[in-house]
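for the writeup, i need someone to sanity check this before i put it in the appendix. the sequnce is what the collaborator sent (i think, or maybe the updated version? ugh). structure was predicted straight from it, no edits. if anything looks off just tell me and ill rerun, i have time this weekend
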Amino acid sequence: MDKKTVNLSSGIKENTATKGFKKNPINGTKFTIAISSAKGGVGKSTFAINFAAALKSLNLKVGILDADIYGPSLPKMMNINEKPKSEDGKGLKPINQYGIQCMSIGFLVDEETPMIWRGPMVTSAIKTFTQKVLWKNLDFIIVDMPPGTGDTQLTFAQEIKLDGVIIVSTPQEIALLDVKRGIKMFDKLQVPILGLVDNMSFFEDKDGKHYNIFGEGGVEKTAEKYKKKFLGKIPINIDLRISADSGKPLVQIKPDHVISKIFLDMAKKINVSFVQDDKIKEKI
């Protein structure tokens, strides 16, 4: 029997090929950073709110856009129980919490309401949040992306001016498989990858002993393989979990906590890189 190979049709290949798109910045913002994981359940949203709080602590004006239409986390993690207001029936005012401007589909629907939407409706919601929210003079807007490499990611990468993406992962192999797909997607769509973060990298007991529950070194090795920056490790910590569940970012309520200092260090590095790039562009 002859060997046969199964290949993608020419139509599918054309749809997945890189195309030229007009990318527009989000009004009222200077820099847009996406937080992606490709894999769900790796602590991406917890990272996003604490990273935003860390940037704010550097006296920067910061906003968070929860782009996870099917599973919004921002209302719970930022303790927001109100709906955004609109003075003209068109533009939505972001809700200010802890000095951070916030927007999420979760502000507009009941907490237990499932979003049973097809791709075009999700894309329409994303465009509303990027075009009709009245963000005010932000230095950075942090976009908490949903897991995967689907409609939301494509909408942002193709139509929104993304200045960079941070990829968050646990070190286990099953999570890294999706991370590698995510890296290739952002590279293909020409979105700069600012670096990879090893989240839940280990658990440290009271005696200082480390337990590598999800494996060890996988994220850093992946960063090296794909020639991306490795931004650091964030260990499992009960205070980080409690603060997220209580709606108060750990960086906000305990800035001197060992975990908060990790977020602050990452925020400083990212901010410096953008300031340096901005100065270079001004000289050109």
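Strands lie at 29-36, 62-66, 95-97, 100-104, 138-144, 164-169, 193-204, 210-211, 230-236. The CA atoms of residues 64 and 142 lie 5 Å apart.
thx in advance!!
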